[in-house]
Amino acid sequence: MEYRRLSPGEFEDISSRILYEDNHILVFNKIPGEIVQGDKTGDECLAETLKAFIALRDSKPGKVFLGIPHRLDRPVSGIVTFAKTSKALSRLSEMFRNGDVHKTYWALCQDAPPKESGELVDWLSRNEKINKSFVTKPGSPGAKEARLLYKLIGRTERYHLIEVKLLTGRHHQIRCQLAAIGCVIKGDLKYGAQRSNPDGGICLHSREVTMIHPVKKEEIRVTAPVPPSWPSFHPV
């Protein structure tokens, strides 16, 4: 199978954003705007770009396998995990489904939370027509319980850095729940931001993932640096 050729600069960029790789999995630092899997836009997805990269780097003459056990919204940056074997894909998919992959996010918000740390428990209802979630009454038809832990960990002159540990995995969960307490994420027009970011993304970053390797059965922990467009901050 023929994959498109990557330019030297693109090859170097892809290589520099690989956070962890072995024979079974590849963990990658996604930038805002990249799509993990193909959609109706027809834009090239990250999975296909990485297949082309692996084919070129490893001189693979045939088809490259790269499975997608989870996704990250297009405007969000940070850690995405891919499976390089079918065995790893089935096991990773089950781990993500069962909450066995522990994910930490960083969110840069204009306003500080009412309390510096806490747990948010809400019921979220998804409107698929406008691709947006809303906080609704407990037990509402179609709504699902959403839980996360948050902590204020840093500040800039204009923004507040909030660390989030997901306890459930709902559609737009962090974006919706933080907005509901007045912490709209920078650049997130859909959930109330006043202006967009120049790159069209939002300042929500999948910062760290901890899990038991699906094949080696050893714990791995991967951390992704934030995009260079983020302002520097000092810890609280």
Account of the 3D structure:
This protein has four helices and eleven strands, in the order αββαβαβββββαβββ. It has 236 residues and is an alpha+beta fold. Strands 1, 2, 3, 4, 5, 6, 7, 8, 9, 10 and 11 form an eleven-stranded mixed beta sheet that branches. A hairpin with a 6-residue loop joins strand 9 (204-212) and strand 10. The longest helix has 13 residues, at 86-98. It starts with 7 loop residues before the first helix and ends with a strand. The model has no long low-confidence stretch (mean pLDDT 96).
Helices and strands in order, then pairings?
Blueprint: H1 8-16, E1 18-21, E2 25-30, H2 46-57, E3 77-83, H3 86-98, E4 102-109, E5 117-127, E6 132-136, E7 144-155, E8 160-166, H4 173-180, E9 204-212, E10 219-223, E11 234-235
Parallel strand pairs: 3-9
Antiparallel strand pairs: 1-2, 2-3, 4-8, 4-9, 5-6, 5-7, 7-8, 7-11, 9-10
